[in-house]
Amino acid sequence: MTAPHRHAIGITRRETLQIGYTGLLGLGLSSAIGPRMASAAAEAPAKPSRKPKSVILVFLTGAPSHIDTFDPKPDAPAEIRGEFGTIPTTVSGLRVTDLLPKLATRADKYAIVRTLAHKDNNHTAATHHLITGSKQPGVRFDKPLSRDDWPCYSAGVSFLRPPAPEVPAGVTLPTFLAEGPLVWPGQHAGFLGPRHDPWQITRDPNAKDFTVDNLRIASGMDVDQLGDRRTLLDQVNRQQRWLAETAEGRRMSDQQTRAFSLLTSGAVARAFEMERESAATRDKYGRHTFGQSLLLARRLVQAGVPVVQANMGRVQNWDTHGNNFKRMKNELVPPVDQGVSALLDDLSQSGLLDETLVVMLGEFGRTPKVDAKNAGRDHWAPCFFGLFAGAGVRGGQVIGKSDKIGAYPTTTPYSPDDVGATVYHTLGIDPATEVRDRLNRPVQLNRGQVIQSLFTGAA
């Protein structure tokens, strides 16, 4: 039996199925369970009490307005400043919009970068740039997920760090970013190959029946019985020479080994048992998809997962071309304000904030001028915000300044590449590390610069 045909461009049908696959043992658990765990992380420029080892990326997909959140312009004309007022925070001189009362009282825990910037107002290309730290090769408006993509952060960790079979290097939840047939790029390991893909959760952690069934041993089966099944599987594999002689077969066998390790270790499986949390804790995060996804992210970090990406909103949820103010006020900002505040509190109280970098951002910002016809704001990549906390980040500071209408940075701009360099540096990976693309050409993993001011204090 021969291995399946591999296309030079795009993804195969087999790889498409792997993206959201959650079956057991291939018989097998998907190659998405095969990433590696970061073992030791480099110290940030300002040393936390523990070495950083995890990242939670809170991705506001569709891109929120920076002016209506963390970079308000109260002195600008009404068509710029919008409908929201501002409130003080616990940091002198720092004000945010009145949609963020909970995060306002925790401003000492995070830093705001107000001068993120790039040049692409296209959702798909900009998303790839933010969640991989590199520009999308061959950018097109409708370019889908491809094995020519740059690897996402967890894939970089999986590739460059020693494996820990019982823990995936990355988990993305609670949704996969896709519009009809167009699956957004940058969401997997790209040219590093499917064995380094993050594990994708596509169920709502707020649902009463939330489970991830492939992490649970089947009803009526104990670990010893599972071991017997593994023996049987080994016998089947030995009878199929292609499993031992082809790259595809070797990869499947490796997946099966890691799947058994994960099932029998239990640490990650228990992380998905949301009922283990008290009702008070779940209420604190909010009984909604946003809040429970962030609670699950915290539980996964506690279980040792190095990179968790929590997509706060399905595709273009924050894409407020119309009804920007109503949607921000009634649907979008309050659950994030509640959930992220609870996340910061939990991580801080447990000491995990020292070793976990929390990053919250979208793929770009929104236009300074409101579209009066639709009460919306359009795409705006030249200036937007990012929130950073933990892992040595000095809270209570604002890095960078935008102009009086929030259109362009007036101080040093930082690119998505710089965000990527900061993520990798936090995880103890040199961003300049050389890897090989699908044509075996040497390429640099990331070409950004670490945002040093996050750790040393704003200049």
From TrEMBL:
InterPro entries: Alkaline_phosphatase_core_sf, DUF1501, TAT_signal. Pfam families: DUF1501 (PF07394). It comes from the Bacteria. This is DUF1501 domain-containing protein.
